[in-house]
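>> received
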Amino acid sequence: MPPVTKPYPPIEPYATGRLSVGEGHELYWERCGTPGALPAVFLHGGPGSGSSPHHRRLFDPARYDVLLFDQRASGRSTPLGSLEANTTAHLVADIERLREMAGVERWLVFGGSWGATLAIAYAEAHPERVAAMVLRGVFTGRKQELDWFYGGGAATMFPDHWERFLTPLPTDERGDIVAAFHARLSHEDARVREEAASAWAGWERRLVALRGSAAASAPLSAGPATVAFSRIENHFVYHRLWLAEGQLLAEAHRLGGIPGVIVQGRFDMVTPPATAHALAKAWPDADFRLVEGAGHAFSESGILDELVAATDRFAAELGKGTAQ
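>> returned
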């Protein structure tokens, strides 16, 4: 493990804008760091959450030119919460549009959790555009991964949180939990949607950090952002991410020649280490960093240390201009 470090200081974007990607969608984007430095793109989790100022701090602003954006219908992108024309393939195409807009040939791709899924999908579709990758909390959408989180696997560790998660669902609707929430998150009654969104997002929030907090255990307010997040994430899970079973691992050979770092918490309860381990076995160019005593959240000290060390490593190895 690298020496204990801290994220870089807070930084403001040097440019922001919106990009129309068709089907009525507009993406919010921002660029941070030094114009013309090593290009990178940050892919946020969820799907449905959005980028944040904290994510900017994972990169040395003197050595990187980072593009962060909110994926379709997420964060500051519009229309908020829309499920139309919102699939994995659409998001992969959006990353390419943003690369072309940024005017770079190749860039470092950074993604955590769902962002790691999207990073892998993008790199397998466009390996010639990826100079390096940093992944955290790897998720590939296989049935065993979905069953762990939405089929009762994680419930064996968190029965109290699981019970709260299922509260909106009558007993006779619990045979297919994802489908039951899908119906409620699309219900015509806003109160039904909000109750379902509070339960859906709350279940994930309570399992993200290894050591919970009072804030994580408190009831979650279901405002527009929470409803949008829950609808989008459920939409992707309901459709199995529009990926064939095991597709991302089966096509990991396409990552050959791309250097990478995989950072994984040993006690990650959202995306357990088995998937990251399997990816590391299928992708020999990746450095697998299993962090003891850590969970899923990027902000946990051991995870954060490894992520910053990874971006520093590639800043030194790739150098200014070599990825463009």
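>> The mean pLDDT is 94.
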